[in-house]
Amino acid sequence: MIYFDHSATTPMHPRVAEKVDYINRTHYANPSSIYSNGRKAKSLIETARNQVANAIGAKSEQILFTSGGTEANNQVLWNKLTDEKKHLIVSSIEHPAIIKVLNKIEPYGITSSLIPVNKDGIVEIDSVMNLINEDTGLISIMLANNEVGSIQPIQKIVENTSPLNIPFHTDAVQALGKIPIAVDSLGIDYLSLSAHKFYGPKGIGALFVKNKKMMQSLIVGGDQESGLRGGTENIAGIVGMGLAAEIAIQNQENCRSHLKYLEKYFLDNLRSNSPDVICNSNNNLPGLISISFPGSRSDILMAKLDRREIAVSNGSACNTGNIKPSTVLSEMGIKKEINLSTLRFSFGKDNTKKEVDTLLKALKEII
Known about the structure:
- The chain is an alpha/beta fold.
- It is 40% helix and 13% strand.
- It folds into two domains: 2-10 and 251-366, Aspartate Aminotransferase, domain 1 (Alpha-Beta Complex), CATH 3.90.1150; 14-250, Aspartate Aminotransferase, domain 2, CATH 3.40.640.10.
- Helix 1 runs antiparallel to helix 9 (235-250), helix 2 runs parallel beside helix 9 and helix 10 (252-273) packs parallel to helix 14.
- The longest helix is centred in the C-terminal third of the chain and has 22 residues, at 252-273.
């Protein structure tokens, strides 16, 4: 299988896989135990916490481990139930782990407003400012979109909203290892990460919390994670995430350069073969591009590529099997017939020019 769906998930880095296996076999003690094996397990967790913190320019005590990006996003939003200010502002192209939560918390008195995006899938500062009212208690805008890759001007938006002292959250799940992330420069209060998006294990993520006094536990139980997430820690997953984050930052520039090369090569040759294709990605993450093929349904294209053992998607993997129009593309003003003819291609660090040539040949023959 030739894999071009790295925005859905990445294969585990060999060093990470080896480390996870080693931890599972040798460091199985409960980190809350006071004997030596338990203390060693705790030490491994703290090392990983430092690695994740270093990857985003944070302090280790600001990192809270979760089961993934979805839980991290949920914890931030559900935390608002106990706040005095109960109006949330989020972008209209957020991941379902943000958008769907809004409906769940509405019965508890939480109101929300959706920020529109322009034709490139970018949030404009004036659109944010126009939605703020005296009851606004959180703004949440993803750093980079998972379907079209659009990178949001988070730093500039925060510069405009910070005088109002409104907490700011960004879902950065797609970004780590592809673009630099520095929480101080961004000026945000919360940031979500998921290890399996940067060649780490599944089932483990992290939430950056600038001030943990602002946060309450979503999963109630023991006093793990500074009392903010009950439950025995996933030691192997945490260690794997820490190593994956460290490797991702070490290789970031080379990976970014490689992905941009593959993206340009693919687009140049695709347009030469099929001049009618439409690229929906601008100012996008390296290697993540959304392409519409007018006259060809995305589900049929995916099925035919799958028969040739080529994996792509038509949007978020969280909506697999859903051939309804993409909400993200609709919010960008893309008409239904074009929306339904759209595929997402997301390249990875191990993809090659030869594999892209195979994809180009397959698309040309299918179309």
